[in-house]
Design brief:
Chain lengths: ~400, ~800
């Protein structure tokens, strides 16, 4: 076990400022132990018709938090299962109404969807606050201080622009003869007597997504700053020091890697199929064909995991690697190859075990992430000097009634 | 410190104290005194009663929390000591049982089994049962709304408005309305038609009582009764509220999965989706069976032949397999008779069935075939005048006499007539070549002589090609590819190459000779050796002569699924042919060919009633001898020789020069005890193909019956001219020779050939054993042994067995052949 912070702190405070020290995160969970916890809690959840799920969540979270240590001390998850249960009831009710509505009254389903989307910023605030306030380290809680309105104000302007542009696009389409456009896009074919006719209104969702696309890195930037900048540990405020540009860079690079990976995947796929057609002239064996087709598709998926791993590693490093608690900076050094491999092997293991390896997969990921995350500070005395933020801080007690845990 | 006997007061616990105001940590040692007060050393907190401390529950190996009322906290990993303290107080200790469950392997395994069992039970019984309950309890207006919106969205997404003839539309609707009035079940069920497009032939039942059938389904049906049966099946779905049950089951499954995986965010959607998919499939399977049962009962009540449903389902399956073969563009095994391809096709269907929502069609249709069968259509004698007259006797005489100029002129004349727009002349020419080039020992020499004398005759070159092509099929003798011995394969390969050269020569002289183009294409499709690009071959040929009957027929033939084509491709080809009918009216008869091919599929599946019905549909499109012949064959397999005879007469009227028709008719005539006519038919065959094996054997049988052994012997010997390795002929010759005491040696030789060439048939071996035994030949012991071995697996006459065994002991006693054993 790592030595405690007290022993690291140098005798003379003066020299510490020039020498940054690094504290390691560690993860001590074991797959077998976690599996037993997970499966028993799942069974209890089922036996209790889902009621116990809130307690199950608390217990599994506490296992994961409790096994994550920084400087030899574990984190703690302190959520009250009853509050989680309340949140779940509300979410479940909404889901039930929503899915019934889609099946029976699609229009009402659409309305519920819009309401759901409009509620997203509020849910983000509530869920982040819940998560932060129920995380603790060294008997001091994390916290998240903001009002619901802040979230709405922040997302309002970019979303307004997106909606405006969508409207503009829709307006422009009024001047385009869609039928001729569609016909010209379709391959000439005598057999198709009626070309697919499409109205501009049907295209609204497509226009919306198209317009939204370039805003996604910016929205992620806003969201990450919103979450981190409003958080604190004890009385140490959290800060994210990253620019919009770095978000765009991360997303664009990931897009590039995605395109390259997919191209390689397609090339592999074609290569494998080409190989089969060479092999298959005489034997005509179905088995070879099936195996090769599976191999081709798997290699294609593997390339997609590669791209996903790259994105995840870069984004995590960007957001956590630039996070500060007071003076202390988080260092996140996820490497995209191991992340891709964990993604890929976890998914394969989960599918092949029909979900039974989910606990093992989570432990693996947690262990890797903990292993490459550090905290660096020139003055570790600061950590021990952090104090409770106190109850007087920005309306935390007031919003307690709204505490919800809604998974996002 | 950890001894079991130790009292709570003797225990000390190491931990870390946090005051809750700062992040600073303080290592402490805890101890409990006799009054139940907890002491910290060093004293960061004053002693406090253990009862006032909240001890957190234990989760795995994570640190245990001891929370003080003032916000202070001690964390420790010494769970064992803490638990001993807990036991000494009354307040704490809840949740301990969860940890006991969580830390035990037995409980973990139990939980695992419980979850698996629960998922299975709810998938198999729970959800179906509850969704059935809910579906029947839903009020009318909700089901109406669901149905309306479903129809609306399908109309937008998939369907387009029906392209049926409005009159036919009305007529069908009226028919169904009558059906509903008669069946007392008219709960507002309606029928509408839509164009299916991508989904093809299908029918849908919506909860609002609307049944939608696609135009493609209407086209697929031969009879309206078949559509009625589909309609009843769909009403069956509605009566059982199947679609509602589906919707509710899917929603419940979604809810169930949310319940189960409430905190499992890592679960990929595929894991969640898989059971959903499987359940959906197995559900509708059950439902299809329920709807089938409903249709079956209703059809019987309405006195509709239940077979109609089986028939249209069979055709629907064809359509589905076609759609499959569309996806697998790779052609199937080029050898159409290979049993393997049949098997793997079946395997594929079974594999598909596991995922498809329809039970294997065969299982379903079997129920419908048990009822009273629909009446067979009765054939009528046709009045077509002799369709394509060819005086092949005269042609053959020209060949015999070496009158090559005349031959060339006459055959070229037919083709020139075709070029000047007479579609019939091409068919006549095709027939003439085929009849001229039947195998006789002299033919080859004569044809070669012709080619030498008239080197520029495309006719002679083509005739030689056809002759060699005929040899290929004689060598093949209708055998499965794998049963053809190596020497025959080599011979087939050689003949194919020769034929190909001659066809190409012919085309060099007459580049647009449709017959040679078609033959070349058929050769390429037929043989395994050639790597000619068949598709381009026929496509190019059809560009110059799109109205050629022979080219179109050949193309269609090789578009059959068993040759690697598919029905949609045939349909496309037929669309092209339709445009040419004005050019060449002969093509009209080809439009029925798709029914003919499907009839052949039925035939292979031994659904002879289906064959009859589909061939009738083909005959309605045009009179072709092969349509009649195939229907006649089906009639005869259905034990209707009178009906078969009418159709064989029709076929022969259309194609009097086809020897096979006479052979088949002769067998039907024998069934009808018209022996003289049967015999005449066989003789007719021999005037056309003098060396036809079947005809010669049949004729010989007639002669044997009449006591004419010597002529019969001659006929069997004639078979050996073309097929020196025909075991049966050798065997029959041996049998005939045995009668003559002077011919025993020859009989023995023939018998030896029979066992040499034939497969292991006990008949052949008995004959051989008999002859060697009587002659006291030393080959007997071996022959007897083989015969007795073969008789273990197949039936042998008791008398023969006894004779052989007796002879065995007899010879063994004489000890004549002891050395040669």
């Amino acid at each position: 076990m790592a030595a405690s912070a007290e022993t690291i702190i140098p005798a003379s405070p003066g020299s510490s400022a020039s020498e940054p020290k690094i504290l390691a995160f560690e993860f001590h969970g074991s797959g077998v132990e976690f599996f037993k916890i997970w499966i028993v809690n799942l069974a209890l959840t089922i036996l209790s018709l889902g009621i116990f799920s809130a307690w199950a969540k608390v217990r599994t979270q506490r296992y994961l938090y409790g096994n994550t240590r920084l400087d030899g001390h574990a984190f703690t998850y302190l959520a009250d299962p009853v509050k989680i249960l309340k949140g779940r009831f509300i979410a479940f009710g909404f889901l039930l109404v929503y899915s019934l509505a889609w099946n029976f009254y699609p229009d009402a389903g659409m309305l519920l969807l819009v309401i759901g989307v409009l509620l997203l910023p509020a849910i983000l605030v509530a869920a982040t606050r819940f998560k932060m306030r129920n995380s603790s380290y060294r008997n001091l809680r994390f916290g998240f201080n903001t009002r619901f309105t802040t979230a709405y104000r922040m997302f309002a302007s970019p979303m307004m622009i997106v909606l405006l542009l969508t409207g503009l696009g829709y307006g422009l389409l009024q001047f385009v003869d869609l039928d001729t456009l569609m016909t010209s896009l379709q391959p000439v074919d005598d057999e198709v007597e009626q070309p697919v006719s499409i109205s501009a209104a049907q295209l609204i969702p497509s226009i919306f997504y198209l317009v939204l696309l370039p805003f996604i890195p910016y929205l992620d930037y806003l969201r990450s700053h919103f979450v981190i900048d409003n958080s604190h540990y004890g009385n140490a405020p959290a800060r994210l020091k990253s620019s919009v540009g770095s978000f765009y860079e991360t997303y664009l690079m990931s897009l590039l890697v995605f395109i390259v990976a997919i191209s390689i995947g397609i090339a592999l796929l074609m290569g494998i199929f080409g190989l089969i057609s060479l092999l298959d002239t005489e034997t005509n064996s179905n088995l070879i064909g099936v195996v090769a087709a599976i191999a081709g598709v798997v290699s294609m998926y593997a390339m997609m995991f590669f791209a996903a791993g790259y994105f995840h590693a870069r984004r995590t490093n960007l957001i956590y690697g630039n996070g500060f608690f007071g003076d202390a900076q988080l260092i996140s050094k996820l490497k995209f190859m191991p992340v891709s491999w964990i993604f890929l092997s976890n998914t394969v293991a989960i599918i092949l075990s029909l979900g039974l390896l989910i606990p093992w997969a989570r432990i693996r990921m947690a262990r890797y992430v903990a292993g490459v995350t550090h905290l660096q500070s020139s003055n570790f005395a600061l950590i021990t000097a952090v104090e409770n933020a106190g109850q007087g801080a920005l309306g935390e007690g007031v919003v307690d009634a709204f505490d919800l845990d809604i998974g996002l | 410190m950890h001894e079991q006997a130790s009292k709570p007061t003797q225990i000390t616990v190491n931990g870390t104290y946090f005051d809750g105001h700062s992040a600073a940590s303080h290592p402490v040692t805890l101890s409990l005194d006799e009054q139940g007060l907890l002491h910290l050393d060093p004293t960061h907190h004053q002693p406090i009663p253990l009862d006032e401390i909240t001890i957190g529950s234990r989760i795995g190996s994570t640190p245990r929390r001891l929370e003080f009322p003032d916000g202070g906290l001690v964390e420790t990993g010494d769970h064992r000591s803490i638990e001993q303290w807990q036991r000494s107080t009354t307040k704490n200790g809840h949740y301990g049982w969860i940890h006991r469950l969580e830390s035990s392997i037995a409980y973990g395994a139990g939980a695992l089994l419980f979850i698996i069992a629960l998922i299975l039970v709810s998938l198999m019984w729970g959800i179906p049962w509850s969704s059935n309950l809910i579906a029947h309890a839903l009020p009318e207006d909700i089901t109406q709304t669901i149905g309306d919106s479903a129809v609306e969205s399908l109309d937008q997404l998939i369907f387009s408005s029906s392209e049926l003839d409005p009159q036919r539309y009305q007529q069908l609707q009226l028919k169904f309305q009558q059906l509903l009035t008669n069946s007392n079940n008219h709960k507002g069920y309606r029928l509408e038609f839509r164009h299916g497009g991508v989904i093809g032939a299908n029918a849908f039942a919506f909860p609002n009582g609307l049944v939608v059938m696609t135009d493609e389904m209407v086209e697929l049906a031969d009879l309206d009764e078949e559509l009625l049966s589909i309609f009843l099946h769909e009403i069956g779905h509605l009566e059982q509220r199947h679609s509602l049950r589906q919707i509710i089951a899917h929603s419940s499954l979604a809810i169930l999965t949310t319940l189960l995986t409430g905190d499992i965010t890592a679960a990929s959607s595929l894991v969640v989706g898989a059971p959903n998919l499987l359940m959906k499939a197995s559900y509708s399977r059950e439902m299809e069976t329920e709807a089938d049962t409903y249709a079956l009962i209703e059809m019987e009540r309405l006195q509709l032949a239940t077979e109609h449903f089986a028939n249209i389902m069979d055709r629907l399956e064809f359509a589905m397999v076609e759609a499959q073969s569309e996806v697998h563009t790779e052609p199937t095994d080029p050898d159409p008779d290979d049993e393997n391809s049949e098997e793997s096709w079946l395997n594929k269907v079974e594999l598909l069935d596991f995922f498809s929502s329809h039970p294997l069609t065969e299982q379903r249709t079997a129920r419908f075939r048990q009822g009273k069968p629909a009446p067979l259509p009765t054939p009528t004698a046709i009045t077509d005048s002799k369709a394509y007259p060819v005086d092949f006797i005269a042609l053959r005489q020209h060949l015999n006499k070496g009158q090559y100029q005349q031959l060339h002129r006459q055959l070229d004349h037919h083709y020139q007539q075709f070029l000047s727009g007479d579609g019939k002349a091409e068919i006549i020419a095709d027939k003439a070549y085929n009849l001229l080039c039947t195998f006789t020992p002299e033919t080859q020499q004569q044809l070669e002589q012709w080619a030498v004398e008239m080197p520029g005759s495309y006719v002679a070159q083509y005739a030689l090609g056809i002759y060699n092509k005929t040899l290929v099929s004689i060598r093949r003798d209708g055998r499965y590819w794998r049963h053809i011995p190596e020497q025959d394969r080599v011979a087939m390969e050689n003949h194919t190459k020769v034929a190909e050269t001659h066809f190409l020569n012919s085309l060099k002289i007459q580049p647009d000779f449709t017959l040679a183009q078609a033959s070349l294409y058929s050769l390429a499709s037929f043989s395994r050796y050639d790597d000619t690009d068949e598709e381009t071959l026929i496509t190019e040929a059809l560009k110059t002569n799109p109205a050629s009957y022979i080219l179109n027929r050949t193309k269609l033939f090789y578009l059959q699924p068993r040759w690697g084509g598919s029905y949609p491709e045939i349909n496309d080809a037929l669309k092209g042919i339709h445009k040419q009918i004005q050019q060449n009216p002969e093509l009209a008869a080809l439009t029925g060919v798709i029914f003919h091919y499907k009839a052949l599929d039925y035939d292979r599946n031994q659904h002879y009633r289906g064959t009859v019905r589909l061939e009738s549909a083909a005959i309605n499109r045009g009179h072709k001898s092969w349509y009649f012949a195939n229907r006649a064959d089906a009639f005869s397999k259905l034990d209707e020789p009178e009906l078969a005879l009418i159709d064989y007469n029709n076929a022969i009227q259309l194609f009097p020069e086809d020897p096979q028709l006479y052979i088949d008719r002769s067998s039907v005539l024998r069934d009808l005890r018209q022996l003289e006519s049967a015999r005449q038919d066989i003789e007719t065959v021999l005037t056309i193909t003098p060396y036809d094996e079947d005809a010669l054997e049949t004729l010989a049988n007639f002669q044997i019956k009449a006591g004419n052994h010597q002529t019969a012997l001659g006929n069997f010997q004639k078979i050996l001219v073309t097929q020196p390795g025909n075991a049966n002929a050798h065997f029959r010759i041996s049998k005939l020779l045995t009668r003559d005491s002077g011919q025993q040696e020859a009989a023995l030789q023939a018998s030896h050939k029979a066992i040499q060439f034939g497969d292991d048939s006990p008949h052949y071996w008995y004959q051989y054993a008999y002859l060697t035994g009587t002659a006291q030949n030393c080959a007997f012991p071996g022959a007897a042994k083989t015969y007795l071995r073969l008789c273990q697996n197949s039936w042998c006459s008791e008398t023969n067995l006894r004779w052989v065994k007796q002879k065995q002991t007899e010879l063994a006693q004489q000890n004549l052949c002891a050395n040669s054993q």
